[in-house]
Records
---
Amino acid sequence: MSVEQPLWQALTAYRVLTLLYALGLCVLSFDDYDHPVGAVVYMAVLTLWTALTFRMVASAEHCTRRFLVGDLGIAVTGILLTPLVDSHDRIAEGTPTLPSIWTMGAVLGFAIKGGWRWGASAATVVCAANVIERGAFAQDTIHMLALVWVASVGIGYVIEVARASERTLARALRIEAATRERERLARDIHDSVLQVLAMVQRRGAAIGGEAAELGRMAGEQEIALRTLVSTGLVSRPRTGDGTETTVGPDALPDALAGADGPPVPPCAPGERSDGGPCDLRALLAPHAGSRVTFSEPGAPVLLPAGVAAELAAAVGAALDNVRVHAGEDAHAWILLEDEPDAVMVTVRDDGPGIPEGRLADAEAEGRLGVALSIRGRLRDLGGTAEWISAPGQGTEVELTVPKASAKKAIRKGEAAR
């Protein structure tokens, strides 16, 4: 049940009760009106309108914007007709308008439907109509109008908070359901497929020859399957010649493709041109393999498409350096961290390390892999690239992109286009 549905039910009852109140005032003041027939005609129209539109305020789906405008028009018309049917002395004394407090129902409809901004706009219209009806800013009029305005804004704000809470709860329930399904799949797969793949990898490595290649491929598939059941991201498995096969997001089960509503597009480099958000995890997951361990948060790490592609390319360049300089047998680790104000990717290896001053010498010799492929990309994104290395202790590359700088980079690119 929607958290706002009780408010619609309360508004329905409010309109009926306030109509009865307005009818009672009309009966009591019948002999005091200058033109009682006009008051009776308006009250008949108000009664018929309330009866015919009873269903319109039963829920948000039925309460359209056109109806709200018409409802407010009925209320404002009644306010402006009051000087035509009632005497000036009675109006100066502060007697209620023809619709009386029924008018507040029209304002509350705007507040519940569209939030505090809609409520404030409708209340302002009612306030203006009341000032015109009285012909002056009387103290009692100001008090009443302030109450209408504050009440409409307050209720509109409450309904916005309630809707946000409802969306948060729905997301939490979807995440919980997806997590339970992922855990169930992980248990089943671990008890069967993963154990078989791990055994094939070990036996193939022990036998050697073609069996070793088969074992290596089984290890790649085991890593891809573990990534799938643990995070919903799938590493692209490699074929025998080292090339990557494509596994699109459509291959994922619905429960794993996105726990929070529709799945976030993986956005491989060049796939998106609208600058929309991309999950950086999906760009880095394909690097995982038997010699590369990828660790990432459980939630999507969203960056604009261009920024995500450039950062992923920098990580790929860092891994290329590991393969070239640390050797094919070196192991690498990728750690993805999503901080409140920045996204950080750390690439670490267990190779021999970089001698002091080697990076500067390589740049001076014209080898610009680090200077352009890594440090240049991060500089263009407003980020930084730092190396921590010591001979015999491996190398660690820390790539940091501030989220504010990422947004500026995207705006700069759009302006250049």
---
Amino acid sequence: MVNPCPKFYIWGMPTKKPKVFVVHLGCAKNQVDAENLVGEMLHAGFATCDTAGKADYILVNTCGFIEAAKEESINAILAQAKAKKAKQKLIVSGCLSGRYGEELMKELPEVDYWVGTYKPGELLKKMGIVAPQSCDAENLPRMNLGGFSHHAYLKIAEGCNRRCAYCAIPLIRGKQDSRSIEDIVAEAKDLEAQGVKEITLIAQDTTYFGREKGKKGGTLVELLRALLDNTNIPWIRMLYWYPMFVDDELLDLMAKEPRLVKYVDMPIQHASDKMLKNMKRNYRKKELVDLLHKIRERIPGVTLRSTVLVGFPGETHEDFEELMELLQDVQFDHLGGFVFSPEEGTPVMEMDLPAVDESDARARLEAVTDYQEELAAEYAENMIGKTVKIIIDQVAEESEYHFYGRTEGNSMENDDIVKVIEGDGDVGEFHNALVVDAEPHELVVKLID
């Protein structure tokens, strides 16, 4: 896209482009925030560099979702603060600084600029960069931090209206605020013009898209139809679904449209009615099981991915057995798991529920993981000799393989990979391939077209 906005004027900035080095942590939604932030900086006259030592500015984009993520973010800030040179400036952005910025400012005076989750123009203003009133920050070019020019995440909404008992996202990012369909389509068209072949729509709850605005907001189905009508992007993927707003119209559209990737990521968290109630998930086990089987029936060949949470306060052995029974019934194609992490300000902190011993919780997670690995091994064995469609993600440098890629049933960064041992192609291309060998979480293929 050719941006009509004139360059920002930076008070006292030298003619040489200042360089910024980016350390990104956290989820895809946080990545999009960082991409928008760096996009503003590039438009303002900055350039990126590949090492902190060459940079004039170091940007650490933090995550604050659970305790482990907070620790990782703090360690990243401390590492950059310790290594930074006298004239370098350190910027901290993202969820951790958004939630704990005031406290961190006192503890880390080495940081020069603090910003939270992305707000257009906020960082530039703090840096003394003046933007013309006519410049629409929403339309600035994004910097692709994912490392794959043919793939991009496209955030369709900010925040979340759910108040799941364990989750700090509403505290960090506020209530859901869906973008307009027109803005999303415009960004998708820009990404397509840049060579993007796969977009992944992301929000905390994609199925609730637009609903907080009533009739003016549109729905996920309307958004998908607009993207199909106005772009030719071959693969359109979605993360994440919440069970309550998955309807027949959405399932039928996915089944009908080949450009809508047959992939559903729907975190269920648990299966016991008692646990679902305590987690404030607002659905029951039977509704969940019926929906999961319905998705499989209505969308032939669909890949189901989910996430479960074990060790939530009050979880008994019987509750966990109910979860395992559901996993054995549904047999998710991909499954992630977490041990409960207490987060201040979340509803569970006010509940009078007994804690689960950490060793028990970790044993439960191990049981989930072991079961899923058995399924992955069975799947791998059954795939040998079959033909699959893949997208080539990268050249396999210094390897016996030619390329690495994915099938339709694998999302970027989260799932299994394909290793191409024979055949020619280019990154971003789609190819048919014959599976000649397989291991859990990877297929070895030869291109056959």
